[in-house]
Design a protein that fits this description.
This protein has seven helices and no strands. By secondary structure, the protein is mainly alpha-helical. The chain has a domain of 58 residues. Helix 5 packs across helix 7 and helix 6 packs antiparallel against helix 7. The longest helix has 21 residues. The chain is elongated.
């Protein structure tokens, strides 16, 4: 048995550790970034972006102009979009991120 603090040493030098190239991909930040950069889906646009409240036009503009917020929303839609009651949750999360971006821009 290994202590929790020393397990990384064993993991680094273990002779039975697989050397498969697919295992190296998960620690590669470039490949992780590619997972986020996907195209907009039409269902996501129809269900989430088009139904965002009209009262928050500046927030909606901020959300639509930021690709990372859109990618985050698409990822949430992939995970929870099949449940109709989660669509409001996804929209709220995007609105919160839009407000955060506006506050961050105003503070700079």
């Amino acid at each position: 048995m290994y202590k929790k603090k020393e397990l990384w040493k064993h993991d680094k030098h273990c002779p039975k550790k697989p050397t498969d190239e697919k295992l190296k991909v998960r620690n590669n930040p470039v490949s992780a970034r590619r997972m986020l950069l996907q195209s907009k889906s039409t269902e996501f646009n129809r269900d989430i972006l088009n139904n965002m409240k009209k009262d928050y036009d500046d927030i909606k503009e901020t959300v639509l102009s930021d690709n990372l917020i859109i990618c985050f929303g698409e990822r949430l839609y992939e995970l929870h979009g099949h449940n109709q009651h989660h669509l409001h949750y996804i929209s709220n999360r995007l609105t919160e991120l839009g407000r955060l971006m506006i506050c961050a821009r105003n503070n700079d």
